[in-house]
Amino acid sequence: MLLLGSLSALPAFTTDMYLPALPDVARDLHTTDAGAQVTMSAMLIGAALGTLVIGPLSDRFGRRGPLLVGLAGHVVTSVLSIMVPNITMLIVLRVIQGFFNASASVTSMAIIRDRFSGAEAARMFSRLMLVIGLSPLLAPTVGSLVEGWGSWHGIFLVLALMGVVLGAVVLRALPETLAVERRVTGGLPAALRGYRTLVRDRRFLALAVVPGLGMAVVMSYVSGSPFVFQEHFGLSSGAFSLLFAVNGLALVASAQVNAALVRKIAPIRLLRTALVVQLVFAAGLVAFAVTGVGGLLGVLAGLWLVLAMQGMVPSNASALALTRHGEMAGTASAVIGALQTGIAGVVSPLVGVLGATAAAMSSVMLGAIAVAILVLAVATPAFRREGGFHAGVPASS
Q: Residue by residue, what is the 3-state secondary structure of the chain?
Protein backbone atom coordinates (compact mmCIF):
# COMPACT_ATOMS: atom_id res chain seq x y z
CA MET A 1 0.00 0.00 0.00
CA LEU A 2 2.93 2.34 0.67
CA LEU A 3 4.22 1.71 -2.86
CA LEU A 4 0.80 2.16 -4.47
CA GLY A 5 0.23 5.28 -2.40
CA SER A 6 3.58 6.68 -3.48
CA LEU A 7 2.74 5.96 -7.11
CA SER A 8 -0.67 7.62 -6.76
CA ALA A 9 0.97 10.63 -5.11
CA LEU A 10 3.50 11.14 -7.92
CA PRO A 11 1.14 13.28 -10.08
CA ALA A 12 0.31 15.46 -7.06
CA PHE A 13 3.98 15.91 -6.23
CA THR A 14 4.76 16.73 -9.85
CA THR A 15 2.15 19.49 -9.71
CA ASP A 16 2.46 20.81 -6.16
CA MET A 17 6.26 20.83 -5.80
CA TYR A 18 6.31 23.25 -8.69
CA LEU A 19 3.90 25.79 -7.15
CA PRO A 20 6.47 27.88 -5.20
CA ALA A 21 8.61 28.17 -8.34
CA LEU A 22 6.01 29.75 -10.62
CA PRO A 23 7.24 33.35 -10.16
CA ASP A 24 10.84 32.32 -10.91
CA VAL A 25 9.75 30.32 -13.95
CA ALA A 26 7.91 33.38 -15.30
CA ARG A 27 10.98 35.55 -14.79
CA ASP A 28 13.57 33.11 -16.17
CA LEU A 29 11.53 32.16 -19.24
CA HIS A 30 10.47 35.77 -19.93
CA THR A 31 6.74 35.22 -19.64
CA THR A 32 3.86 36.52 -17.54
CA ASP A 33 2.49 34.96 -14.35
CA ALA A 34 -0.50 33.77 -16.37
CA GLY A 35 1.87 32.14 -18.86
CA ALA A 36 3.62 30.29 -16.07
CA GLN A 37 0.28 29.16 -14.65
CA VAL A 38 -0.62 27.59 -17.99
CA THR A 39 2.00 24.94 -17.24
CA MET A 40 -0.24 23.81 -14.37
CA SER A 41 -3.27 23.47 -16.62
CA ALA A 42 -1.09 21.64 -19.12
CA MET A 43 -0.45 18.92 -16.54
CA LEU A 44 -4.19 18.43 -16.01
CA ILE A 45 -4.85 18.23 -19.76
CA GLY A 46 -2.10 15.67 -20.21
CA ALA A 47 -3.32 13.66 -17.22
CA ALA A 48 -6.87 13.50 -18.57
CA LEU A 49 -5.65 12.27 -21.96
CA GLY A 50 -3.19 9.83 -20.44
CA THR A 51 -5.79 8.38 -18.12
CA LEU A 52 -8.10 7.49 -21.01
CA VAL A 53 -5.29 5.90 -23.05
CA ILE A 54 -3.32 4.09 -20.35
CA GLY A 55 -6.35 2.53 -18.63
CA PRO A 56 -7.29 0.26 -21.58
CA LEU A 57 -3.61 -0.49 -22.25
CA SER A 58 -3.25 -1.81 -18.70
CA ASP A 59 -6.25 -4.10 -19.29
CA ARG A 60 -4.60 -5.36 -22.49
CA PHE A 61 -0.94 -5.72 -21.47
CA GLY A 62 -1.10 -5.98 -17.68
CA ARG A 63 -0.31 -3.41 -15.01
CA ARG A 64 3.49 -3.47 -14.80
CA GLY A 65 4.33 -2.70 -18.43
CA PRO A 66 2.27 0.50 -18.85
CA LEU A 67 3.30 1.60 -15.36
CA LEU A 68 7.02 1.24 -16.08
CA VAL A 69 6.69 2.98 -19.45
CA GLY A 70 4.83 5.82 -17.76
CA LEU A 71 7.51 6.19 -15.07
CA ALA A 72 10.21 6.23 -17.74
CA GLY A 73 8.31 8.94 -19.61
CA HIS A 74 8.04 10.92 -16.38
CA VAL A 75 11.80 10.74 -15.88
CA VAL A 76 12.61 11.78 -19.45
CA THR A 77 10.19 14.74 -19.46
CA SER A 78 11.49 15.87 -16.06
CA VAL A 79 15.07 15.92 -17.35
CA LEU A 80 14.08 17.72 -20.56
CA SER A 81 12.17 20.34 -18.54
CA ILE A 82 15.44 21.37 -16.91
CA MET A 83 16.80 22.42 -20.30
CA VAL A 84 13.84 24.28 -21.84
CA PRO A 85 14.69 27.65 -23.44
CA ASN A 86 11.14 29.08 -23.42
CA ILE A 87 7.72 28.72 -21.85
CA THR A 88 6.17 27.10 -24.92
CA MET A 89 8.46 24.09 -24.72
CA LEU A 90 7.83 23.78 -20.99
CA ILE A 91 4.07 23.79 -21.56
CA VAL A 92 4.40 21.04 -24.17
CA LEU A 93 6.60 18.97 -21.88
CA ARG A 94 4.19 19.38 -19.00
CA VAL A 95 1.33 18.05 -21.16
CA ILE A 96 3.47 15.02 -22.01
CA GLN A 97 4.54 14.62 -18.40
CA GLY A 98 0.92 14.69 -17.24
CA PHE A 99 0.13 12.03 -19.85
CA PHE A 100 2.82 9.66 -18.56
CA ASN A 101 2.10 10.43 -14.90
CA ALA A 102 -1.44 9.16 -15.39
CA SER A 103 -0.02 5.64 -15.52
CA ALA A 104 0.84 5.80 -11.81
CA SER A 105 -2.63 6.70 -10.55
CA VAL A 106 -4.60 4.59 -13.04
CA THR A 107 -2.64 1.37 -12.50
CA SER A 108 -2.64 1.82 -8.72
CA MET A 109 -6.45 1.87 -8.68
CA ALA A 110 -6.61 -1.08 -11.08
CA ILE A 111 -4.16 -3.11 -8.99
CA ILE A 112 -6.34 -2.66 -5.91
CA ARG A 113 -9.38 -3.80 -7.90
CA ASP A 114 -7.42 -6.82 -9.16
CA ARG A 115 -6.92 -7.92 -5.56
CA PHE A 116 -9.97 -6.62 -3.69
CA SER A 117 -13.62 -5.72 -4.18
CA GLY A 118 -16.51 -4.18 -2.28
CA ALA A 119 -15.88 -3.14 1.32
CA GLU A 120 -12.30 -4.39 1.29
CA ALA A 121 -11.50 -2.34 -1.80
CA ALA A 122 -13.01 0.72 -0.12
CA ARG A 123 -10.79 0.10 2.89
CA MET A 124 -7.70 -0.13 0.69
CA PHE A 125 -8.63 3.06 -1.17
CA SER A 126 -8.92 4.77 2.21
CA ARG A 127 -5.40 3.65 3.06
CA LEU A 128 -4.24 5.15 -0.23
CA MET A 129 -5.74 8.44 0.87
CA LEU A 130 -3.31 8.53 3.80
CA VAL A 131 -0.34 8.81 1.43
CA ILE A 132 -2.12 10.86 -1.24
CA GLY A 133 -3.52 13.25 1.34
CA LEU A 134 -0.07 14.04 2.66
CA SER A 135 1.18 15.05 -0.79
CA PRO A 136 -0.37 18.55 -0.93
CA LEU A 137 0.98 19.17 2.58
CA LEU A 138 4.55 18.11 1.87
CA ALA A 139 5.09 18.89 -1.81
CA PRO A 140 5.08 22.73 -1.71
CA THR A 141 7.41 22.70 1.31
CA VAL A 142 9.79 20.29 -0.40
CA GLY A 143 9.62 22.41 -3.56
CA SER A 144 10.49 25.54 -1.61
CA LEU A 145 13.47 23.84 0.02
CA VAL A 146 14.77 22.49 -3.30
CA GLU A 147 14.36 25.86 -4.98
CA GLY A 148 16.15 27.51 -2.06
CA TRP A 149 19.15 25.25 -2.57
CA GLY A 150 19.35 25.98 -6.27
CA SER A 151 16.60 27.06 -8.65
CA TRP A 152 13.37 25.76 -10.10
CA HIS A 153 15.44 23.47 -12.32
CA GLY A 154 16.34 21.48 -9.21
CA ILE A 155 12.68 20.62 -8.67
CA PHE A 156 12.56 18.76 -11.97
CA LEU A 157 15.78 16.96 -11.08
CA VAL A 158 14.20 15.76 -7.83
CA LEU A 159 11.08 14.68 -9.72
CA ALA A 160 13.25 12.70 -12.14
CA LEU A 161 14.99 10.97 -9.22
CA MET A 162 11.61 10.13 -7.69
CA GLY A 163 10.61 8.45 -10.93
CA VAL A 164 13.84 6.45 -11.03
CA VAL A 165 13.41 5.26 -7.44
CA LEU A 166 9.77 4.31 -7.93
CA GLY A 167 10.61 2.47 -11.15
CA ALA A 168 13.34 0.48 -9.40
CA VAL A 169 10.98 -0.48 -6.57
CA VAL A 170 8.25 -1.50 -9.02
CA LEU A 171 10.70 -3.70 -10.92
CA ARG A 172 11.84 -5.37 -7.72
CA ALA A 173 8.77 -5.54 -5.50
CA LEU A 174 5.52 -5.14 -7.47
CA PRO A 175 4.21 -8.34 -9.06
CA GLU A 176 1.90 -8.43 -12.03
CA THR A 177 -1.67 -8.55 -10.68
CA LEU A 178 -3.58 -9.12 -13.94
CA ALA A 179 -3.26 -12.71 -15.12
CA VAL A 180 -2.88 -13.29 -18.85
CA GLU A 181 -6.20 -15.13 -19.10
CA ARG A 182 -8.00 -12.11 -17.61
CA ARG A 183 -6.59 -9.57 -20.04
CA VAL A 184 -8.73 -7.83 -22.62
CA THR A 185 -7.81 -8.54 -26.23
CA GLY A 186 -8.79 -6.78 -29.42
CA GLY A 187 -6.82 -3.54 -29.44
CA LEU A 188 -8.51 -0.19 -30.07
CA PRO A 189 -11.95 -1.63 -30.96
CA ALA A 190 -12.01 -3.51 -27.66
CA ALA A 191 -11.03 -0.36 -25.77
CA LEU A 192 -13.80 1.61 -27.45
CA ARG A 193 -16.29 -1.15 -26.68
CA GLY A 194 -15.17 -1.03 -23.06
CA TYR A 195 -15.74 2.70 -22.85
CA ARG A 196 -19.12 2.30 -24.54
CA THR A 197 -20.10 -0.34 -21.98
CA LEU A 198 -19.09 1.89 -19.09
CA VAL A 199 -20.84 4.98 -20.43
CA ARG A 200 -24.04 3.00 -20.91
CA ASP A 201 -23.96 1.77 -17.31
CA ARG A 202 -25.85 4.56 -15.61
CA ARG A 203 -25.02 3.43 -12.08
CA PHE A 204 -21.32 3.10 -12.82
CA LEU A 205 -21.28 6.53 -14.42
CA ALA A 206 -23.04 8.07 -11.43
CA LEU A 207 -20.61 6.48 -8.98
CA ALA A 208 -17.69 7.57 -11.18
CA VAL A 209 -18.91 11.17 -11.27
CA VAL A 210 -19.07 11.47 -7.47
CA PRO A 211 -15.26 11.37 -6.93
CA GLY A 212 -14.97 14.11 -9.57
CA LEU A 213 -17.46 16.29 -7.72
CA GLY A 214 -15.58 15.52 -4.52
CA MET A 215 -12.36 16.64 -6.17
CA ALA A 216 -14.16 19.80 -7.27
CA VAL A 217 -14.92 20.49 -3.59
CA VAL A 218 -11.25 20.11 -2.68
CA MET A 219 -9.93 22.10 -5.65
CA SER A 220 -12.42 24.90 -5.03
CA TYR A 221 -10.95 25.16 -1.54
CA VAL A 222 -7.36 24.94 -2.83
CA SER A 223 -7.84 27.58 -5.53
CA GLY A 224 -9.89 29.95 -3.38
CA SER A 225 -8.23 29.68 0.03
CA PRO A 226 -5.11 31.80 -0.70
CA PHE A 227 -7.31 34.76 -1.67
CA VAL A 228 -9.82 34.21 1.13
CA PHE A 229 -7.38 33.81 3.99
CA GLN A 230 -4.38 35.88 2.89
CA GLU A 231 -6.08 38.77 1.12
CA HIS A 232 -9.46 38.97 2.85
CA PHE A 233 -8.57 37.83 6.38
CA GLY A 234 -4.96 39.03 6.20
CA LEU A 235 -3.19 35.85 7.28
CA SER A 236 0.57 35.66 6.75
CA SER A 237 1.99 33.04 4.39
CA GLY A 238 3.24 31.08 7.40
CA ALA A 239 -0.16 31.11 9.09
CA PHE A 240 -1.82 30.11 5.83
CA SER A 241 0.59 27.18 5.41
CA LEU A 242 -0.28 25.99 8.92
CA LEU A 243 -4.00 26.29 8.18
CA PHE A 244 -3.53 24.36 4.94
CA ALA A 245 -1.76 21.58 6.84
CA VAL A 246 -4.47 21.35 9.51
CA ASN A 247 -7.19 21.09 6.87
CA GLY A 248 -5.15 18.47 5.03
CA LEU A 249 -5.02 16.41 8.21
CA ALA A 250 -8.83 16.49 8.31
CA LEU A 251 -8.89 14.81 4.89
CA VAL A 252 -6.34 12.18 5.88
CA ALA A 253 -7.95 11.41 9.24
CA SER A 254 -11.44 10.95 7.79
CA ALA A 255 -10.08 8.55 5.18
CA GLN A 256 -8.61 6.40 7.95
CA VAL A 257 -11.85 6.51 9.93
CA ASN A 258 -13.58 5.32 6.76
CA ALA A 259 -11.11 2.44 6.46
CA ALA A 260 -12.13 1.27 9.94
CA LEU A 261 -15.87 1.80 9.50
CA VAL A 262 -16.11 0.07 6.14
CA ARG A 263 -15.40 -3.29 7.84
CA LYS A 264 -18.77 -3.04 9.58
CA ILE A 265 -20.84 -0.67 7.46
CA ALA A 266 -21.54 -1.04 3.74
CA PRO A 267 -19.65 1.45 1.54
CA ILE A 268 -22.86 2.76 -0.01
CA ARG A 269 -24.23 3.65 3.43
CA LEU A 270 -21.03 5.46 4.38
CA LEU A 271 -21.03 7.32 1.07
CA ARG A 272 -24.59 8.59 1.27
CA THR A 273 -24.31 9.47 4.96
CA ALA A 274 -21.04 11.35 4.43
CA LEU A 275 -22.50 13.36 1.57
CA VAL A 276 -25.64 14.36 3.50
CA VAL A 277 -23.64 15.38 6.58
CA GLN A 278 -21.17 17.22 4.36
CA LEU A 279 -24.04 19.10 2.72
CA VAL A 280 -25.25 20.30 6.13
CA PHE A 281 -21.74 21.42 7.09
CA ALA A 282 -21.31 23.20 3.73
CA ALA A 283 -24.59 25.05 4.23
CA GLY A 284 -23.28 26.20 7.60
CA LEU A 285 -20.03 27.30 5.98
CA VAL A 286 -21.95 29.38 3.43
CA ALA A 287 -23.95 30.97 6.25
CA PHE A 288 -20.77 31.93 8.13
CA ALA A 289 -19.18 33.29 4.95
CA VAL A 290 -22.18 35.33 3.80
CA THR A 291 -23.23 36.78 7.15
CA GLY A 292 -19.78 37.21 8.64
CA VAL A 293 -20.97 35.67 11.91
CA GLY A 294 -18.03 34.06 13.67
CA GLY A 295 -15.53 35.87 11.47
CA LEU A 296 -12.38 33.94 10.63
CA LEU A 297 -13.03 31.23 13.23
CA GLY A 298 -16.50 30.57 11.85
CA VAL A 299 -15.20 30.06 8.33
CA LEU A 300 -12.29 27.91 9.54
CA ALA A 301 -14.56 25.68 11.62
CA GLY A 302 -17.08 25.21 8.81
CA LEU A 303 -14.37 24.52 6.28
CA TRP A 304 -12.64 21.96 8.51
CA LEU A 305 -15.90 20.07 9.02
CA VAL A 306 -16.64 19.98 5.28
CA LEU A 307 -13.17 18.67 4.49
CA ALA A 308 -13.34 16.18 7.36
CA MET A 309 -16.20 14.40 5.57
CA GLN A 310 -14.43 14.43 2.21
CA GLY A 311 -12.19 11.47 3.05
CA MET A 312 -15.25 9.20 3.06
CA VAL A 313 -16.49 10.17 -0.39
CA PRO A 314 -14.01 9.28 -3.19
CA SER A 315 -12.75 6.00 -1.69
CA ASN A 316 -16.22 4.50 -1.27
CA ALA A 317 -17.55 5.84 -4.59
CA SER A 318 -14.49 4.57 -6.50
CA ALA A 319 -14.64 1.13 -4.89
CA LEU A 320 -18.35 0.80 -5.66
CA ALA A 321 -17.86 1.91 -9.26
CA LEU A 322 -14.97 -0.50 -9.85
CA THR A 323 -16.89 -3.38 -8.28
CA ARG A 324 -19.34 -3.21 -11.16
CA HIS A 325 -16.65 -3.76 -13.81
CA GLY A 326 -13.75 -5.67 -12.31
CA GLU A 327 -13.14 -7.41 -15.66
CA MET A 328 -11.83 -4.13 -17.09
CA ALA A 329 -10.59 -2.35 -13.99
CA GLY A 330 -7.99 -0.35 -15.93
CA THR A 331 -10.53 1.14 -18.30
CA ALA A 332 -12.97 1.80 -15.46
CA SER A 333 -10.20 3.46 -13.43
CA ALA A 334 -9.43 5.61 -16.47
CA VAL A 335 -13.00 6.87 -16.64
CA ILE A 336 -13.00 7.68 -12.92
CA GLY A 337 -9.65 9.46 -13.18
CA ALA A 338 -10.63 11.45 -16.25
CA LEU A 339 -13.88 12.54 -14.63
CA GLN A 340 -12.02 13.60 -11.49
CA THR A 341 -9.65 15.79 -13.46
CA GLY A 342 -12.26 17.12 -15.85
CA ILE A 343 -15.00 17.95 -13.37
CA ALA A 344 -12.60 19.56 -10.91
CA GLY A 345 -11.02 21.54 -13.75
CA VAL A 346 -14.39 22.88 -14.88
CA VAL A 347 -15.95 23.59 -11.47
CA SER A 348 -13.09 25.02 -9.39
CA PRO A 349 -12.46 28.10 -11.62
CA LEU A 350 -15.98 29.23 -10.72
CA VAL A 351 -14.55 30.41 -7.39
CA GLY A 352 -12.50 33.03 -9.22
CA VAL A 353 -15.34 33.92 -11.57
CA LEU A 354 -17.59 34.61 -8.57
CA GLY A 355 -15.00 36.84 -6.94
CA ALA A 356 -12.62 34.53 -5.00
CA THR A 357 -14.33 35.44 -1.71
CA ALA A 358 -15.26 33.18 1.19
CA ALA A 359 -18.87 33.25 0.00
CA ALA A 360 -17.83 32.29 -3.55
CA MET A 361 -15.58 29.46 -2.37
CA SER A 362 -18.15 27.99 0.04
CA SER A 363 -21.02 28.34 -2.45
CA VAL A 364 -19.16 26.40 -5.14
CA MET A 365 -18.30 23.70 -2.60
CA LEU A 366 -21.95 23.49 -1.50
CA GLY A 367 -23.11 23.27 -5.11
CA ALA A 368 -20.73 20.41 -5.94
CA ILE A 369 -21.89 18.41 -2.90
CA ALA A 370 -25.55 19.01 -3.73
CA VAL A 371 -25.02 17.81 -7.31
CA ALA A 372 -23.24 14.67 -6.03
CA ILE A 373 -26.24 13.82 -3.83
CA LEU A 374 -28.62 14.50 -6.71
CA VAL A 375 -26.63 12.23 -9.04
CA LEU A 376 -26.68 9.38 -6.52
CA ALA A 377 -30.38 9.84 -5.79
CA VAL A 378 -31.42 9.89 -9.46
CA ALA A 379 -29.10 7.32 -11.01
CA THR A 380 -28.59 4.77 -8.20
CA PRO A 381 -30.71 3.21 -5.43
CA ALA A 382 -28.30 4.67 -2.83
CA PHE A 383 -31.12 6.53 -1.07
CA ARG A 384 -33.64 3.71 -1.49
CA ARG A 385 -33.98 0.65 0.68
CA GLU A 386 -32.28 -1.65 -1.84
CA GLY A 387 -29.22 0.61 -1.79
CA GLY A 388 -27.33 -1.64 0.60
CA PHE A 389 -27.79 -1.89 4.36
CA HIS A 390 -25.19 -4.43 5.38
CA ALA A 391 -21.42 -4.51 5.55
CA GLY A 392 -19.90 -6.07 2.47
CA VAL A 393 -22.72 -5.18 0.09
CA PRO A 394 -20.61 -4.50 -3.01
CA ALA A 395 -22.59 -1.82 -4.77
CA SER A 396 -25.95 -0.45 -5.68
CA SER A 397 -26.38 -3.10 -8.34
A: CHHHHHHHHHHHHHHHCCHHHHHHHHHHCCCCHHHHHHHHHHHHHHHHHHHHHHHHHHHHHCCHHHHHHHHHHHHHHHHHHHCCCCHHHHHHHHHHHHHHHHHHHHHHHHHHHHHCCHHHHHHHHHHHHHHHHHHHHHHHHHHHHHHHHCCHHHHHHHHHHHHHHHHHHHHHHCCCCCCHHHCCCCHHHHHHHHHHHHHHCHHHHHHHHHHHHHHHHHHHHHHHHHHHHHHHCCCCHHHHHHHHHHHHHHHHHHHHHHHHHCCCCCHHHHHHHHHHHHHHHHHHHHHHHHHCCCHHHHHHHHHHHHHHHHCCCHHHHHHHHHHCCHHHHHHHHHHHHHHHHHHHHHHCCHHHHCCCCHHHHHHHHHHHHHHHHHHHHHHCCCCCHHHCCCCCCCCCC
Dihedral, 18, 303, 4, 211 alpha carbons, nearest 10: -100
Other C-beta atoms within 10 Å of 34: how many? Answer: 8
| Residue-wise pLDDT tens digits, 343-352 | 877 787 788 7
| Residue with more model confidence, 129 or 83 | 83
88's CB contacts (< 8 A; 6+ apart) are none
pLDDT (tens digit per residue) in 163-205: 999 999 999 988 888 777 777 666 667 667 777 878 788 888 8
Residue 241 burial (C-beta neighbours within 10 Å; 0-12, 13-18, 19+): middle
